[in-house]
Amino acid sequence: NGSLAKPAGGWTSADLSGIDYSAETAAMIDGVIQPEFFTGADGRLQFPEYPYGVYVIAETTVPTGYKPIAPFVVTVDEDSRVQQPWRYFVDTDKFWVRVVKKDAETGNVILGKNAAYRLFSLTENRYVEMLVSYPAPITYGTITHPFETGEDGKLILPQTLKYGTYRLEEVTAPEGYVLAKSEQTDLPVYNLKGTAAPNPSSDVILDFTGLIYDEDIRDDVIEVVQKNEQQKGHINLFKKKEEPADADGTGGSGVPPSGKLPMAGVEFRLYAAEDIFAQDGSGTVVHEKGALAYSMTTNADGKAAISNILLGKYVLREYAVGETDQAEIGGILRSRYDFVDGVEIEFTHQEQDVAVVFDDRTLLDVYRLG
């Protein structure tokens, strides 16, 4: 319909690829939109006579298990009953495969952190191996030489893949991420066991129904997106207080504390001790240094928890106590206890099968004697 502008050097397969031709309006003859044409039993197809013009011919219905031919241009510029020369094309059952590594939470491509895979053929019940001869003979897809993503978070298999059913298996996760199938669900509850519920991801099965044009190899590829969960931190906090021996609880008698009790209603705030970056390698700062990142308040048992903490360095500060632990001291309403302040906590990446990094803390507030 004229919307496809002709480049200076003429059309190339790249100009004509990556277009959903099934969504376009087909060309017309005498004002009638022409239907989709199909080859006969002999694999041949002869189009009717079209008006003068430049047309794109694209394969819109493809036999199962085959890759469509590249779209091509036909020019009709003279009146003739003689058909143009026959053009022969071969549909191939070989496909290029591109794997893209993404962050399951943000959806961003994970940059600068390599991941490694093996590919299992469910059709042939074996792992796929591909021999590359240059610069030195190496067989990829093995345990020692798996397929690896690059700094851009992508990989294209070194050879085409025959149509079939394949499962992508991750053998090395990017740093700071959980290996596929090792995911867990963590909740913001006090959990001294240091465990979270297993929640493995589904198998990644290659889908041969959709093709995407790849500029690097100048051909259509099957794109497989494999997502990883971030490793996250979890703080378990048990807050206690020294209990005074005198009955009025003001500490005025100067009697030393006699025991330790859970301290309820205490608010804690977790501040970033450094710039906390997104783990996907994008360079995005999620929490600036000194910014409040997370908070929690102890329950009646003196316990509290924070989950889903990004990896990095933090400072935990006691912010406020409950009303029952306040008193008028020196004419000012203040806590009866000396705060525990400035606790440094750091969460670092762990082994790839670790989803949650636990940090358990028991903090004691000291009673003011006067």
Secondary structure: elements and pairs:
Blueprint lengths: L12 H4 L11 E2 L2 E2 L19 E5 L14 E5 L17 E10 L12 E6 L4 E2 L2 E3 L5 E3 L6 E2 L5 E3 L4 E2 L3 E7 L11 E2 L11 E2 L5 E2 L6 E3 L4 E10 L3 E13 L12 E6 L4 E6 L3 E2 L7 E3 L4 E6 L5 E7 L2 E9 L5 E4 L2 E4 L1 E2 L4 E5 L8 E12 L3
Parallel strand pairs: 5-18, 19-31
Antiparallel strand pairs: 1-2, 3-4, 5-11, 5-12, 6-7, 6-10, 6-13, 8-9, 13-16, 14-15, 17-18, 19-20, 19-25, 21-24, 21-26, 22-23, 26-30, 27-28, 29-31
Description:
- The protein has 370 residues and is mainly β.
- Helix content is 1%, strand content 41%.
- It is built from 1 helix and 31 strands.
- The strands form 10 sheets. Strands 5, 11, 12, 17 and 18 form a 5-stranded mixed sheet that branches. Strands 6, 7, 10, 13 and 16 form a 5-stranded antiparallel sheet that branches. Strands 19, 20, 25, 29 and 31 form a 5-stranded mixed sheet that branches.
- The chain is elongated.
- The mean pLDDT is 85.
